Amino acid sequence: MSIPYGRQSISSEDIEAVVEALTSEYLTTGPEVEKFETAISEIAQTNYSVAVSSGTAALHCAYFAADLQPGDEVITTPLTFVATAAMASMFGATIKFADVQADTGNIDPESVKSLITSKTKVIAGVDYAGHPVDIDELKEIAGNAGALFLQDAAHSIGSTYKGRPVGKDADLTAYSFFPTKNLTTGEGGAISSQNPALAQRAKQFRMHGLVRDPERMRAPNVGAWHQEVHHFGLNYRLPDVLCALGSSQLRRIQDFKSARTKIFDRYTAGLRELEWITLPKKRDYVDPMWHLYPIRVASEMRRALFYYLRSNGVTVQVNYIPAYWHPVYEDLGYKKGLSPIAESYYLGELSLPMFAELSVHDQEKVIDLISNFPRK
Ligand SMILES: *Cc1c(COP(=O)(O)O)cnc(C)c1O
Q1: Is the residue at 3 inside a domain?
Q2: Residue of minimum CA distance from atom 3 in ligand 1
Q3: 154 CA to middle of ligand 1, Å?
Q4: pTM beyond cutoff 0.90
Q5: Is residue 141 exposed (0-12), middle (13-18) or buried (19+ Cβ within 10 Å)?
Q6: Which atom of ligand 1 is nearest to the CA of 178?
Q7: Staple partner for 57: which of 17, 43, 236, 282, CB 3.0–4.6 Å?
Q8: Quick one: which of 170, 148, 143 has its CA closest to 159?
Q9: DSSP secondary-structure letter at 178?
């Protein structure tokens, strides 16, 4: 059986939590939702969290909360899963792709600064591989521009920046709980914020745009059955069954983090002598919960190494195709060469297997295979 690049860790406690929710009164919209949201807020040291059905839904809700309108501009990184940009494009916003830092792969605040205009509404960073972006710089740039700072933390729940947990600082933070991520609900995601108005807008978008609080209704005195739609929304709810799994997984987050840290350190120790590989770098003011172990090789070598590892039972991945290389952005007029550092990062990148239950034996197999890669 081949070694996957990421996979979930499900304990007997996780299973019990799901079974309990399954046999309770509520399968969805019940008490487990709020419990999970409270647990996320505790980890992120934030006031409000809203559980949703995927990381993509979280981004969609976050951009809605930011009141993104056609013609508004969003500055983001191309070195991300396309949803970070795509969910903003769905509101008719114009995406300005900044470049990244060569060491971390994270959005470069200097590049962001050069793209600010009077139309900039959101600056969206991605904590690539789990390494937090330069939060202080990005917050300041966004504040000066009258824009919001959105942190796509799909990789980084559990990471800290200058001692502060991811989720505490950004105007809006989006998480994903897909099975390969740091913790999972099968499918799922969340938004968190310190700002009650932003959180409320995200929450309303999750549920059809419905308003049920009489104080906010246009016609508050109709009767107890009355509810109002004030804007169009979706059904992005995360069921109780999955929220129960999420709460149980969150109780294990420190174990996940230490397992991922050990794997990170073991790769670094095992590969550091190979001068043809660039290993991931960490800034000294962050403590990442590593989601990926991204190595980089010469672009001419990447393809051969990818197929060599895959044919030897090691499922490596490439993260990420620059977002604007996707035909949907090409058709909007984006051209190759826009963010050269991100493009060169992509062309040499390979993500090695990284997940809490990766065994020492399997990890050593990966290290040995790479060490014996027949380079031409
Ligand atoms: C996984 C991911 C998403 C999307 O999350 P889903 O839960 O798969 O919808 C968004 N952004 C980044 C950076 C991701 O890695």
Answers
A1: no
A2: 55
A3: 5
A4: yes
A5: buried
A6: 7
A7: 236
A8: 170
A9: -
